[in-house]
Amino acid sequence: MIFDSLKNKDNYKWNSFLYQALCFLDELPPDALPEANTVLIPDILFCNPVSLSTRPESECMYEAHRKYIDVHYIVSGIEGIATADTSVLTEVTPYSEEKDIAFYSGKEDGRYYLSSGQFMVCYPSDAHKVAIALGQPAPVNKIVFKIKVED
């Protein structure tokens, strides 16, 4: 897992797909969401605009993916994300090959509050519980990139 700010994007040149995603973000106008899902590299790198309302943690579940690495980037608002290694969690909804997702329950290893300009990279073993409210529920605009895991 990586937690960082877009201003440090040049630190990620070692990963061409992640770096390309960060450069895409850096070229967007401030507070802008892409109008639709955007493919940067077919079958390898794409992003989805997401507008959500944060909610109490009791309404959130851990999720993890096997085919794609997630990159969560906050455009506006503040979103809490709890993390834990999938090996210490209990799977509550089996993995769906079609949707590339499984849901889990258990205790967190860490918690991060992402605000505008910050991002988090979640690898397949990094379960993440997204949309956690910091106090009262509030709107968040974010972009979620998917980077294909090498076969």
TrEMBL record:
A single cellular component GO annotation: cytosol
InterPro entries listed in its UniProt record: NanQ/TabA/YiaL, NanQ/TabA/YiaL_sf
Transmembrane segments: none
Gene3D superfamilies: YhcH/YjgK/YiaL
First and last residue of the signal peptide: none
NCBIfam families per record: YhcH/YjgK/YiaL family protein (TIGR00022)
Entry protein name: YhcH/YjgK/YiaL family protein
